[in-house]
Every structure is written in structure tokens, then in C-alpha cells.
């Protein structure tokens, strides 16, 4: 059986269709022996996404713990077997663990051949423009990083001028804002990607993973959702009195596993976060965010 996920050349996104988003489905590595292992929750999240029958699945990076390990990718293949069987197209973002430890992406591109080796790419899906970026600054040369920055500005300009698009989402692995006690906010993303993102007329939100928690921030009318709840060992967040960035989601320090459902409508984009508690089987509402379109019909 082929391991790659096919992707249509022309995406037929019908009215009422939804997009699912999940981040950080990697298994806890053996060297992380002190962290929780979430095999059951990870599998439940994937099954729940397939049961939602979305038109597209976006993955926000860190599909595996060791990107160079054929065994780790075989575990990913088994985990995502329901996605493949449902013929659900997958639009991925590359995470740091997908590259770690040798900087190679052979296994990654074997699964996502529709990317044609591109580490940053853009798609139009119904009324949405999706811009997937490679936020792994360490693994890109200064020249390649600058090329990506300029490419992003050009894509956002084209999307602003496209009358068929109502809103634009940026997809990255590393969040520019987080209150994680484990991972730091990405200065590279903030300095290199946010100027064009905030300047563009149609941008609605930036979705990221890397931090294994759910967080919601806002700046200059744009929203920043951290969605790394796919089953990696959860990250604790600092208490509210020590937050570096105001979190619009009033959740506990250790948050539920989760995925997102994006539902474009006539007036805007509805984002529903669906949660799963540790040791549970029931998928429950976690959060809901409505983003009005920034561009008229």
C-alpha cells in the first residue's frame, strides 16, 4: 500500500465543508522517559477527526519524534491509516522533529509528495487562502530564509487582490507568542513573518503547533492560535499572573488534547476547538472563535 497522501490539483471545497487542524502528533521519545506517553489519546484524536468527515486536514508539524527514523514514520503511518483509508487530503507544515536530528526530510516528502519538495507553499481552498511556512530557522540558510520572507509578502499581496478569497490563514510550526514553560516564542517568526502578515488586508489568523497546549492571542485585529494538542507530551503553561502574553482562553496550566474545525460561512470563519481529557474517550467542546471576513464578498 502506498504511504503517500494524494492531494487534488483543483480543490472542490463545497458550501458547508470544514477543515480540520491538528498539531504535534509525535510519540514521546525514549529519551523523554519522564514525560507522559499518550498513545491512546493520540489515536482517539485521529479517529475523531476522521469521524468529523472534513474536506481537508491541516497538520501543524512534528508528525514524528525522530524525523530520520523509519520506525517512527512507520508508527505515523499506522496512526494515520484511518486518514488514508478515508482518502482525506492532508496539507502539512514541517516541524522541528520532522527534521531532527539530521536535517533531512526524505521520509516527510515520501508521505507528502504533492508538495514536490517545497518546504513553504500556498493553496486556495474555497474562500480561504492557506499559506504554509517553514519556521525552522536553524535548518534554513540565511538566503533561503530571506527567499521565504519575500515569497510570503508576494503571496499575501496576490491573495489580497484575489476577489475569490475572503480570508487568509498563515500556518507555521513555531508560535510567535506562547506562555509555555517548555518552549519559547519564536523571535524568528515574529520578526520575519509578522510584518507582512499584519500588513495584509485579508489575514485572519496564524495557526501554530510546537507548544503542546491550546492558547489564543490577538494583535492588531489578527488572531494567533497555538494548537499543539495532537498527542505529544503536554506542556504546562505559566500561571496567569506570570503570562508574557494575554491569553484569551481561560484554561488551566495543563490543557486538554485537541484539534480544530474551521467552518467558513457567509459572514466569517468559525473555529471550534474540540478537546479530549487525559484518559478519556469523549470529545468535548473546548473553545469557539468567530473571525469576521476582512474582505467584502
Short précis:
By secondary structure, this protein is α/β, with parallel strands linked by helices. The protein is built from 8 helices and 12 strands. It has a single domain, classed as Purple Acid Phosphatase, chain A, domain 2.
| Order of helical and strand elements | EHEHHEHHEEHEHHEEEEEE
Per CATH, what is the topology? Answer: Purple Acid Phosphatase, chain A, domain 2
Indicate the CATH architecture. Answer: 4-Layer Sandwich
Radius of gyration, in angstroms, nearest whole number: 18 Å
The counted number of beta strands is 12
The helix/strand class is alpha/beta
What overall geometry do the principal axes of the alpha carbons give? globular
- The total number of structural domains is 1
Adjacency order of strands in the biggest sheet: 3-2-1-10-11-12
Q: Unreliable segments (pLDDT under 50, ≥5 consecutive)?
A: none
Overall pLDDT level: 95
CA distance, first residue to last residue = 43 Å
The CATH class, by name, is: Alpha Beta
As a percent range, the share of helical residues equals: 10-25%
Strand content: 15-25%
* Biggest pleated sheet: 6 strands, mixed
Count of helical regions: 8
CATH superfamily grouping: Metallo-dependent phosphatases
